[in-house]
Specification:
Elements lengths: L1 H5 L6 H35 L2 H49 L3 H6 L2 H43 L1 H48 L1 H6 L3 H26 L2 H27 L6 H42 L20 E8 L10 E8 L4 E6 L5 H6 L9 E6 L2 E2 L5 H6 L1 E5 L7 E2 H5 L8 H10 L3 H4 L9 E2 L8 H13 L5 E5 L7 H14 L4 E5 L11 E6 L2 E6 L1 H7 L1 H18 L1
Length: 581
């Protein structure tokens, strides 16, 4: 795990190494200071030598200033290293996610990925910053202070050999008890974020159905679960600080008692006042360092589960790989499904698609209809390799889609979904997702084909008009038409409309299809629709049922021979007559 995480340090290795080095220099100065103080007490004050006191005092101030300088520089280096490390981790996770297939994304929830790139990385960042400072400072401080204590008084030094492992074992026990609760907490964080995300994204639906109270209760449950497990974990970790405080004051009492007894009984021969003062300082430094270690320990315990979750994403391998020698040119828009079956998961009890055999000529228009759950979207997602077929072969341009460079293939296959997304920015910014170098004339032509130009020209800023995140300030039909225009700018060899005209009226739908027929006759067009009117002019129509092709034919052929098609056609025509009345 650490090996994977440390790869993200990269350009911040210098700061990551300098921080502990400067901390060690700071510790060395702090360890020498009590010795100078002891000399001032035992020599300068005892002999009344003002010159000696001033001389050692100057050295003492110099040491303190150096300790301060090293400490400040170490803090700066640690802050830069930790912030940079967190930046790189976010970069690496985000870039990794961009390479994921839909199958990989299905493995992680959206809220889970958001939590990993925010809360989890923040936890790791804090643990890393504390580690390169305090994990360097505390052990060195304990070791050097203990050596100094050993030189002054062996009995007191031996006491720390008992206290340190005793506390270490107790801390390990506390961590073991708290860890399972932290595992549950981060899973519950995902649920909490998911609840928030769903609520905000679906706010219009929530309000239209007056479900605010239900959403509040759902949020409260998720927040309550996080609170409960975090409280349990923190209650266990709460033993850490009192335990350290108890040990600190117990040892200090022991040092005071033993030190005072030795001074009185030996009249300062075995231990004088200056040495006793240094001994108290070293004891405090050792125990304070143990306190620091306990703080780091708590943070690392919390960050450990976050680190596992981050590594889980970084180690996830995309289920889609480019071939060793990929093909970069797609010959034409022909599509072939040869004995294709598909499942979203190996554990799935039923195949989403089964025994699909289909041959589509380049430039042909294919309509697809079927009920909910008939796997219409699953079928078309295999064409641009958003998923790979579980069995059989999918070909585009006469070649297996797995033989193409993924980016080259997808550049020739434009998919317009029913719930396509617009991004915050101008209309032109959104259209240039299809072609970043598109001219205004090309964008206008694409919008005319998609029947979007008319409403765009009615906006005050026309093509420079701002689109809110998700296209919140345009209607569903306008959004779909902009997404179709965006796809057309790719000039694809295959255009897939996945129920992407469901929000436009039948007249506009017909005009869009007519534009396709006249202006992009060589582009293979696959139209998934619920309305038969949207596909009845297609060269062929597929009827899907239960993940299988139930029938293939023209509108007239299916109307004569296929019961499912007849039923859908009859119900829609009846509905149209009723509406007309």
């Amino acid at each position: 795990m650490n090996k994977t995480l440390f790869k993200s340090i990269r350009e911040y290795k210098k700061q990551s190494l300098l921080a502990p080095f400067l901390v060690i220099l700071e510790v060395m100065m702090e360890v020498l200071i009590p010795l100078e103080m002891a000399k001032i007490i035992d020599v300068g004050i005892a002999n009344g030598d003002l010159g000696y006191i001033v001389q050692r005092g100057i050295i003492l101030v110099a040491m303190a200033m150096l300790a301060l300088f090293f400490g400040v520089q170490a803090g700066n280096m640690a802050a830069v290293a930790a912030a940079g490390y967190a930046k790189n981790l976010r970069h690496d996770i985000f870039y990794k996610v961009q390479d994921f297939s839909f199958k990989n994304i299905d493995h992680f929830s959206t809220s889970g990925l958001v939590t990993r790139m925010t809360t989890d990385i923040t936890n790791v960042q804090m643990a890393y910053m504390m580690s390169i400072r305090l994990l360097a400072r505390a052990p060195i401080m304990i070791l050097l202070s203990w050596i100094m204590t050993l030189l002054i008084n062996v009995k007191i030094a031996l006491l720390f050999l008992i206290v340190i492992p005793l506390l270490g074992g107790t801390l390990m026990f506390i961590a073991k008890k708290a860890h399972p609760h932290f595992i549950r907490v981060f899973d519950e964080y995902d649920e909490l974020n998911n609840s928030i995300q769903e609520n905000i994204k679906g706010m219009r639906v929530v309000k239209s159905y007056v479900r605010e109270e239900f959403e509040k209760e759902k949020f409260d449950r998720a927040a309550g679960d996080v609170c409960e497990d975090f409280t349990k974990a923190e209650k266990i970790l709460a033993w850490n600080n009192p335990l350290m405080q108890f040990s600190l004051y117990t040892v200090m009492i022991f040092v005071l008692t033993v030190g005072s007894y030795v001074i009185i009984t030996t009249k300062g021969l075995d231990l004088d006042v200056g040495q006793f003062s240094a001994l108290l300082t070293y004891s405090f430094q050792i125990l304070s360092s143990l306190m620091m270690l306990s703080m780091v320990f708590v943070m690392v315990t919390l960050a450990n589960e976050s680190a596992h979750r981050i590594v889980e994403v970084l180690k996830e391998e995309s289920s889609l790989k480019n071939p060793a020698e990929p093909v970069y040119e797609v010959a034409d828009g022909s599509i072939d499904f040869e004995n294709v079956s598909f499942s979203y998961s190996k554990k799935a009890k039923r195949k989403a698609l089964a025994d699909i055999n289909l041959h589509i000529r380049s430039g042909e228009t294919i309509g697809i209809i079927g009920g909910t759950g008939s796997s219409k979207s699953s079928l078309v997602q295999l064409i641009p390799r958003l998923y790979d077929a579980t069995e059989g072969t999918v070909k585009v341009g006469g070649l297996d889609v797995k033989s193409y460079d993924i980016e080259a293939l997808r550049n020739q296959v434009a998919v317009v979904l029913q719930k396509n997304i617009l991004f915050s920015g101008s209309i032109m910014d959104n259209l240039r997702w299809g072609d970043e170098n598109a001219t205004e004339e090309e964008m206008k032509q694409a919008c005319e084909l998609a029947q979007a130009d008319e409403f765009i020209m009615q906006f005050p800023d026309q093509y420079a008009s701002h689109i809110e995140q998700g296209g919140a300030n345009v209607s569903g039909g306008q959004k779909q038409r902009l997404c179709i225009a965006r796809a057309l700018l790719k000039k694809p060899k295959i255009l897939i409309l996945d129920d992407s005209t469901s929000a436009v009226d039948t007249k506009t739908d017909a005009m869009i299809r007519l534009a396709f027929k006249e202006y992009i006759p060589d582009t293979t067009k696959i139209i998934i629709a619920q309305r038969i009117s949207s596909v009845q002019e297609a060269d062929r129509i597929l009827v899907l049922e239960g993940g299988r092709i139930q029938a293939v034919g023209t509108h007239e052929e299916l109307l004569k021979e296929n019961a499912i098609y007849q039923e859908v056609y009859a119900s829609q025509n009846k509905g149209g007559e009723t509406d007309g009345e």
